[in-house]
Design a protein that fits this description.
Length: 275
């Protein structure tokens, strides 16, 4: 199963400072590529999916634990995969992948109900074997996890299928303190369609901050140094934070604002906008 979660404040965030205007740190945008609408829309879409996945995983885990399942069975079901269904609802499976990655044995399924924050648990005894494409997200997760390695703090994992049959796999820090929301030190993998190998590995942020955003904050504020655009987890941050606040982001050449619906706007860095 994923790393421990904080049920009431299961959200990633960044230690932020108050801002009421543009970011004060950006470099000249001369010679750079202007961020396209399609690029920013893709970041927003992935961030929204991460936030929805997180909600589904949270509520499904709560529903499972409420049944007081056998602890040995839960320990064996060490992989959790949430899947978005065509009707827009999520199914969450708890199971284990065989060492050969040829079968995903599902011990419990969390099935959606009429309420988006409620799941009905379907136990499978013996575990339900999945040998077709349904096992591939679990395979992609395990392959990425071997590269990600062990860490001293807990992380949550997310697997998002892409339209071309490949997969995104994310590892983002789990919240362990109800008063503070972690953000950063996160990574995104692009996995092959057969889930057997890593196609690309992209650190989204290199530094982990774990500070609370004051209740009277106008917005949060942080920089992105690995890229010249906001990251998928930055959109997740805005959508997961309660109460929601916009996030201002500075990159080398641009200043961005992520609205509370996850949409992104931008401008050339304030200090150099008149060059």
């Amino acid at each position: 199963m994923d790393a421990p979660r904080c049920p009431m404040l299961l959200r990633a965030s960044i230690g932020s400072v108050l801002v009421a205007c543009g970011l004060p740190f950006s470099a000249a945008a001369q010679g750079t590529t202007v961020p396209s609408d399609s690029l920013l829309a893709g970041i927003t879409a992935r961030g929204r999916l991460l936030a929805a996945y997180d909600q589904a995983a949270w509520h499904a885990t709560d529903a499972l634990l409420a049944l007081r399942p056998d602890s040995a069975v839960v320990r064996a079901a060490n992989t959790m995969i949430a899947t978005l269904q065509p009707d827009g609802r999520w199914t969450v499976r708890f199971g284990r992948l065989t060492p050969a990655s040829d079968t995903f044995y599902v011990a419990y399924e969390a099935l959606p109900t009429a309420r988006p924050d409620s799941f009905a648990i379907q136990p499978h005894a013996p575990p339900l074997p999945l040998v077709g494409p349904e096992r591939l997200p679990a395979t992609a997760l395990q392959v990425a996890l071997r590269d990600f390695g062990a860490h001293q703090r807990p992380y949550n994992s997310y697997v998002l299928p892409r339209a071309d049959g490949t997969f995104w796999v994310y590892f983002m820090p789990a919240q362990t303190d109800p008063a503070a929301l972690p953000h950063g030190a996160d990574i995104r993998y692009l996995m092959a369609a057969d889930a057997s190998r890593i196609v690309d590995k992209h650190p989204m942020h290199r530094t982990l901050l774990n500070l609370a955003l004051p209740e009277n904050a106008v917005s949060g504020l942080h920089t992105v140094v690995v890229d010249d655009v906001p990251q998928d987890s930055d959109v997740f941050l805005v959508l997961a934070r309660h109460p929601r606040r916009p996030e201002m982001i500075g990159t080398e050449h641009y200043d961005y604002a992520i609205a509370i619906d996850g949409s992104i706007t931008w401008r050339v860095g304030e200090r150099h906008s008149h060059r």
